[in-house]
């Protein structure tokens, strides 16, 4: 699968969030989107997920503009983790994860034993084994976040779009979940695009990054080239220092 953004430009009111830019994303790549608050990261992610149509340029998935792809088919190709979720009809954890299988079911078709097994497996992958019958509203913030990540895993898209997946997660779960996403790219040839606030997580797990500057300029490419203290200081409007360490370089606020 190939995702191409061609001269993509985003505007909100008088503000240009993204000046026209091109980007080509291949199977197996893990991208991080970085930028300061309000720079347009969520708007960009939602636009790529087909939720906004008020953009200029083209968004093309395997040679087809995303508007031309029926939504159910699109949901088998690309899945989105929202920054926050509203629970209109809270059910159990298992029922919630099973909604990830819906793009794969025919109208009125019930989930199969395979769907159930996959849902249980994804709960296990995010450390929620044993939570199957728990009501969603009784879960903690981090448990709920992991539940929605499990739901996206159960959807099994080719392209994973995630808005701040590390939100609400403790240190261990941040690394467990981002490691899992990275593995999907390296071992299963899936693609990931995730909005991250922590440059250290991006440097560790993303092979490519998109830096979304407040003036609408977009820089994109391999992480090694773009994840520098100079570029990050400009991006966040705050001094960022680079600390050498044996394990890997660390970025800290100056
Ligand atoms: N409908 C709208 N009308 C006016 N401004 C809007 C509208 N929607 C979004 N914006 C503005 O566009 C900008 C980008 O919003 P967006 O949510 O994409 O930012 P973000 O980079 O994800 O921010 P954060 O890091 O705070 O989550 C913000 O300044 C927001 O206030």
UniProtKB/TrEMBL annotation:
Q: Which terms in the Gene Ontology molecular function aspect does this entry carry?
A: ATP binding; ATP hydrolysis activity
This molecule's function is given as: Part of the ABC transporter complex HmuTUV involved in hemin import. Responsible for energy coupling to the transport system.
The protein's superkingdom reads: Bacteria
Which family is annotated? Belongs to the ABC transporter superfamily.
Task: Mark the transmembrane ranges.
Answer: none
State the name under which the record lists this protein: Iron complex transport system ATP-binding protein
Q: Which Pfam families match?
A: ABC_tran
Q: Does the keyword Aminoacyl-tRNA synthetase apply?
A: no
Species of origin reads: Thiohalophilus thiocyanatoxydans
Domain annotation ABC transporter: ranges: 3-239
Q: Which PROSITE patterns match?
A: ABC_TRANSPORTER_2 (PS50893)
Q: Which UniProt keywords apply?
A: ATP-binding, Nucleotide-binding, Translocase, Transport
């Amino acid at each position: 699968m190939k995702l191409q953004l061609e001269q993509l430009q985003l505007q909100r009111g008088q503000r240009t969030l993204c000046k026209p830019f091109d980007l080509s994303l291949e199977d197996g790549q893990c991208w991080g989107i970085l930028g300061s608050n309000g720079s347009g990261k969520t708007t960009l992610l939602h636009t790529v997920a087909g939720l906004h149509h008020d953009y200029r340029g083209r968004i093309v998935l395997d040679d087809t503009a995303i508007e031309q792809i029926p939504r159910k088919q699109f949901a088998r190709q690309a899945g989105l983790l929202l920054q926050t979720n509203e629970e209109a009809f809270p059910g159990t954890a298992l029922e919630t994860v099973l909604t990830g299988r819906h793009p794969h079911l025919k109208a009125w078709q019930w989930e199969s034993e395979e769907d159930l097994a996959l849902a249980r497996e994804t709960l296990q992958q995010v450390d929620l084994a044993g939570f199957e019958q728990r009501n969603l509203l009784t879960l903690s913030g981090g448990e709920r976040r992991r539940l929605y990540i499990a739901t996206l895993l159960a959807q099994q898209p080719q392209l994973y779009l995630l808005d701040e997946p590390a939100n609400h997660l403790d240190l261990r779960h941040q690394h467990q979940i981002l490691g899992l996403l990275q593995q999907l790219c390296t071992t299963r040839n899936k693609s990931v695009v995730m909005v991250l606030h922590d440059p250290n997580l991006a440097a560790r797990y993303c092979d490519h990054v998109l830096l979304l500057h407040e003036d609408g300029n977009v820089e994109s490419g391999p992480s090694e080239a773009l994840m520098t203290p100079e570029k990050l200081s400009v991006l966040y409007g705050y001094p960022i220092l680079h600390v050498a360490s044996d394990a890997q370089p660390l970025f800290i606020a100056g």
